[in-house]
Design brief:
Blueprint: H1 3-24, E1 32-37, H2 62-66, E2 71-73, E3 80-82, E4 85-90, E5 96-101, H3 115-127, H4 134-142, E6 143-150, E7 153-158, H5 165-170, H6 183-186, E8 206-212, E9 215-220, H7 225-229, E10 239-244, H8 248-256, H9 268-277, E11 281-282, E12 292-293, E13 299-302, H10 312-321, H11 324-331, H12 350-358, H13 369-378, E14 382-384, E15 387-390, E16 393-394, E17 396-402, H14 406-422, E18 425-431, H15 433-440, E19 448-451, H16 462-465, H17 492-505, H18 514-528, E20 531-533, E21 538-539, E22 543-544, E23 548-549, H19 568-574, E24 576-577
Parallel strand pairs: 1-10, 17-18, 17-19
Antiparallel strand pairs: 2-3, 4-5, 5-7, 6-7, 8-9, 9-10, 11-22, 12-21, 13-19, 13-20, 14-15, 15-16, 23-24
Helix pairs in contact: 1-8, 3-4, 8-9, 10-13, 11-14, 12-18, 17-18
C-alpha cells in the first residue's frame, strides 16, 4: 500500500476544507467530528431530497444531523426505536396505521413539528409523480390517504394490507426513510420538484452552515428541542463535517493522521496499514473479520430457463462445488463470513436463520466436490479430460459480473477456478455497471451472474423471500419487475414455495408461526436452488478514537456502523470526547 505517497495530497485537501470551516466559526478540532464522504457533493445548494434517487442530497449530513426520522430500526434487536414518533397501532388487517408523534418537537426555526407536517408531506408525495426519490415512490405506491386525527396523531390508510408499512417507510430499514418536511416552508413552493429548499430547515440538533463540492459543515443548535424536552442530551460535538476523502489511499492517510474520525469502507490490507500508523483506529470487530455485515448478502444468480441449468440437480451441483470459505479468504481477504442462508446475519434475523439451520437446510462453508460431480454425472455428463461432456457438448457456463468493484470480479474469479477444477468450463464475463443493471439482470441475459437480489430483509423474512415467487415470472427478454425473480424460477417447487410466502405476506410482524413457515418454504427453495447464497457482504469501516469514543461496534452494539445512513443520529448522540 503506497500510503506515504498519498500523504501530501490528503493533508492539503483537509487544510483547504479546515480553512473554509474556520471562516464560518472558530471551532476546535477536538470539538469537531469529521465523517468521510466517498463522492463529490453535486449541487451543494440544493436540499430537495424528494427528487433525488441516489441519496446525493441527503448523505453529506442532511439526514444524519438535520432531518430526523420517525423511528430507527435496530438491527440487533429488530425493534423500532421511537424518535420523532413515540409509537403506532395497526388495525387487524394491516390496512390502517395510526402513528403518534412526540410532543414538544420543533423545527430549527422555532415552528412546531406536528401532524400537519406529516399530512402535508405525504399528500405532496401522493400528488406529484415528478417527485422520484425511492422513499417517495414507495410511499406513493402504498398509501391511499392520510388524515390528521389531532396535532400529534396521524392515520394512514393503505391500498392493501402491509404489516411492514411503518418500518418500510419511516423506520430507516435501509439507508433512509421518508423524511417529513416543514409545511410552513414547502407550502410556499410553486413547484415541489424544482424547489431547492435552501437554506434547509430540520428538527435535528445541527443546522446547515455551508457546503461546497468537497465538504459540508453543520453546527450544533443549542436550542434543539430534544434537549429542551429531555428526550436526549445535546450531542457533544459542536460541529459535524462531511469531507470528501478522494479514495481509499487518501482516506487511509486522513484516518492515520487524525484528520477524519469515521471513514468509508476500506480493504483489510488498508485497514491493517492504518493500524500500523495509528493504534487509536478501530473497526466493528477487534480481529477478523473486522467488518460489519452489509444488508445485501452476496449470491450467485442462475437463469433457470437455460439448459443445462434448467435442471435443479445441476444447480444443486454448483452449490456443492462452491467453497465459500475460499471466497472469504481470497476474494474478501477474510473480512466476511460464509452465508448459512439467503439472509443477512443480523440479530433481528436470527429466529429465521436458526429455523432454517435447525431444519437441516443451512449451507456449508466448505465444498463437497465429489457430491456435486455425482449429481452432474447422474444427469448423463461424463468427464473427458478437463471437462464434462454430453452428446458432444462440453459442460460450460459464462458468469456475468459487474466490473464496477474488485470484490465482484475477485469473487467470480475464485468461483470460475473452483468450477474449472471440478470439470466445468466456466469463464467470467465482466460488463460495465450500466449494462449489468440495465441489460443483463432485468432481461435475463445471462446463464449465471454475481449479485445480491435477496437484499431487503433485515428484521423480517418476507421482503427477501417475496422476491422469488412465481407471480414475478416473465419470459427471458422481458424485464423482470423490480429485479424480482430474475432467475425465472417456476415449477412445482416454486409453486409450493410461493404459496407459503404469499401467506406470510399479510401476517403481523413477530407472529410466532413465521419462523416455522420460513423453514418450510426454504425446503422448497433449497430443492429448486434458483440462486446460491455465497457470503455476507462486508463493510470494513474504520473509526478513530483519538478525539471521539462511543463508536458502534460488535461490543458496543446500539446499531450498525453505516454513517451515511439516516441512523447516524444515534451514532452522533453516542459520541463522547476522548479523555
Amino acid at each position: 500500500m503506497r500510503v506515504n505517497r498519498m500523504l501530501p495530497l490528503a493533508t492539503s485537501a483537509v487544510v483547504v476544507a479546515m480553512a473554509s470551516m474556520a471562516g464560518a466559526q472558530d471551532i476546535a478540532r477536538a470539538d469537531t467530528v469529521i465523517f468521510d464522504l466517498d463522492r463529490t457533493i453535486q449541487d451543494p445548494e440544493n436540499f430537495n431530497w424528494m427528487t433525488d434517487g441516489t441519496g446525493i442530497r441527503r448523505m453529506h449530513g442532511a439526514h444524519q444531523t438535520m432531518w430526523e426520522p420517525l423511528f430507527i430500526l435496530n438491527y440487533g434487536t429488530g425493534d423500532l426505536d421511537p424518535w420523532l414518533a413515540t409509537g403506532f397501532e395497526a388495525n387487524a388487517e394491516s390496512t390502517q396505521f395510526t402513528i403518534t408523534l412526540r410532543e414538544g418537537v420543533t423545527w430549527s426555526d422555532g415552528e412546531p413539528f406536528n401532524a400537519d407536517d406529516v399530512v402535508f408531506s405525504t399528500e405532496m408525495a401522493l400528488a406529484n409523480e415528478e417527485l422520484t426519490a425511492r422513499e417517495v415512490a414507495t410511499l406513493r405506491a402504498q398509501v391511499a390517504s392520510v388524515e390528521k386525527i389531532d396535532d400529534l396523531t396521524v392515520r394512514f390508510t393503505l391500498n392493501g394490507p402491509n404489516p411492514r408499512f411503518v418500518v418500510e417507510n419511516f423506520g430507516v430499514r435501509i439507508f433512509g426513510s421518508f423524511l417529513i418536511m416543514p409545511e410552513h416552508i414547502w407550502s410556499q413552493a410553486e413547484n415541489p420538484a424544482t424547489f431547492t429548499f435552501n437554506p434547509p430547515v430540520g428538527t435535528g440538533p445541527y443546522t446547515f452552515t455551508s457546503a461546497a463540492s468537497n465538504r459540508a459543515i453543520w453546527d450544533r443548535n443549542d436550542d434543539w428541542w430534544g434537549a429542551q424536552t429531555g428526550f436526549q442530551d445535546l450531542p457533544e460535538p459542536l460541529r459535524v463535517v462531511f469531507l470528501e476523502s478522494g479514495g481509499e489511499e487518501s482516506r487511509a492517510q486522513l484516518m492515520a493522521t487524525n484528520q477524519i474520525d469515521a471513514a468509508q469502507s476500506v480493504s483489510v490490507g488498508t485497514f491493517e496499514a492504518i493500524g500500523f500508523q495509528n493504534d487509536a483506529v478501530i473497526a466493528w470487530y477487534d480481529d477478523y473479520p473486522f467488518a460489519a455485515a452489509d444488508p445485501c448478502a452476496r449470491q450467485l444468480e442462475i437463469n433457470t430457463t437455460l439448459a443445462p441449468w434448467d435442471s435443479a440437480e445441476m444447480r444443486q451441483a454448483i452449490n456443492l462445488i462452491i467453497d465459500r470459505s475460499q471466497i472469504v479468504n481470497i476474494a474478501v481477504e477474510g473480512a466476511t463470513t460464509a452465508s448459512q442462508t439467503m439472509f443477512v446475519e443480523y440479530g433481528s434475523m436470527a429466529p429465521f436463520i436458526d429455523a432454517v439451520v435447525e431444519a437441516g437446510l443451512g449451507l456449508s462453508p466448505s465444498a463437497d466436490v465429489a457430491a456435486g460431480q455425482a449429481l452432474i454425472e447422474a444427469q448423463g455428463w461424463t468427464r473427458n479430460g478437463d471437462y464434462y461432456e454430453k452428446d458432444g457438448e462440453t459442460l460450460a457456463v459464462a458468469i456475468h459480473v459487474n466490473s464496477a468493484s474488485v470484490e465482484y470480479t475477485r469473487t467470480i474469479d475464485v468461483i470460475v477456478e473452483q468450477l474449472q477444477r471440478a470439470g466445468i468450463d466456466a469463464r467470467s464475463v465482466p460488463v460495465e455497471n450500466s449494462v449489468f443493471w440495465g441489460e443483463v439482470l432485468p432481461f435475463g441475459n445471462y446463464e449465471m451472474t454475481y449479485s445480491w437480489l435477496s437484499c431487503g430483509s433485515v428484521n423480517e423474512p418476507w421482503t427477501s423471500m417475496g422476491r422469488y415467487t412465481v407471480a414475478d415470472v416473465v419470459p427471458v427478454g422481458e424485464r423482470s419487475p423490480g429485479f424480482n425473480n430474475t432467475a425465472r424460477w417456476n415449477g412445482a417447487a416454486a409453486e409450493a414455495y410461493s404459496a407459503i410466502v404469499d401467506q406470510m405476506e399479510g401476517m403481523p410482524l413477530g407472529d410466532p408461526a413465521i419462523p416455522g413457515m420460513v423453514a418450510e418454504a426454504y425446503g422448497h427453495l433449497a430443492e429448486g436452488m434458483p440462486f446460491i447464497p455465497l457470503v455476507q457482504s462486508a463493510k470494513l469501516i474504520p473509526f478513530n478514537t483519538t478525539y471521539w469514543t462511543g463508536w458502534p461496534s460488535n461490543e458496543n452494539y446500539y446499531n450498525h456502523p453505516f454513517h451515511w445512513w439516516n441512523t447516524t443520529h444515534q451514532m452522533i448522540h453516542n459520541l463522547t470526547k476522548a479523555e
